[in-house]
Amino acid sequence: MTMMRAVQVQELSDDLSGVRLVELPIPEPREAEVLVRIEAAALGFPDLLMTRGRYQAKPALPFIPGMECAGTIVKAPTGSGWREGDAVIAGGLTGSVAQYGCFAETGLMRLPSRLSFAQGASLRAAYLTAWVALVRRGGAQAGETLLVHGAAGGVGLAAVDLGIALGLDVIAAASTEAKREAIRALYGSARVIDGAPGFREEVLALTGGKGADLVFDPVGGDVFDESTRCIAFDGRLLVIGFAGGRIPQVGANIALIKGFSVVGVRAGEYGRRFPERGVENNSAILALAAEGRISPSVHATYALADWEQAFSAMELRTVVGRSVILPHAE
């Protein structure tokens, strides 16, 4: 077989009209690359934004979307330490929503045996973000209170899962009752609240008036503003992103008076700036997954032909965890 099916972004558009399911030649790996038969591709919001040209990275057209996948190695360089048939987690800026893909050998992670391909594809980006935020940047200590906004999203749900594994007292905030019920079913030890305006009072009530020691915020906007009013003294407000649209601002006098820190989190850049710590971060989440202490949640799986449904579910914000495309499923 020399051809494969793939989703390809041919033109940028707000309605996915520039995206097609196409047949392409199976790519040949270049030096220091491996060829992977992709069994699962996990979708994140950046993948949707890239189809519109609204993500910070703008791949040249045409491109195959998808930053995360898992599968089995078909070809690997001699001496790389990887062999044909190895189950791996792979990825890059693009290239995952296809039946085959070439990826840098140095970026591969061995798939823990406890995880399915769909779970493996959902592991790296979300859990690395959560790990860098909570451990590296937030200095989380067992027994502290963690407030997670956008807790039903892929990254937010990873923060809930990891927070519990680290021994934190987790408060998970989500926007709809359906999402809150799903979080309760997955993580019974988390205290789940409505993330709508007014969450400050509930957070203060749940913490005895102290406030949250750590706030994990991928939303920004009004959520960030209100979080400054329910964060504990010596707390850390972890800035993950701005899914709410507005980039907030905070007066230095508020941080001074309330004694909290605003901490930026860029997990990928952290690993690039500190390569040894980046390796340690990957090893840490792999070990937790291998021990069964964390387990990525797959919201739904889709055949490659149903790619549009998978992307639309993200746009509708109905996904709890990750939507995953199975490129070889019928």
UniProtKB/TrEMBL annotation:
CDD domains: QOR1 (cd08241). It holds the Pfam family ADH_zinc_N. InterPro entries: ADH-like_C, ADH-like_N, ER, GroES-like_sf, NAD(P)-bd_dom_sf, Zn-ADH-like_protein. Residues 14-325 form the Enoyl reductase (ER) domain. It comes from the Bacteria. This is NADPH:quinone oxidoreductase family protein. It comes from Novosphingobium jiangmenense.
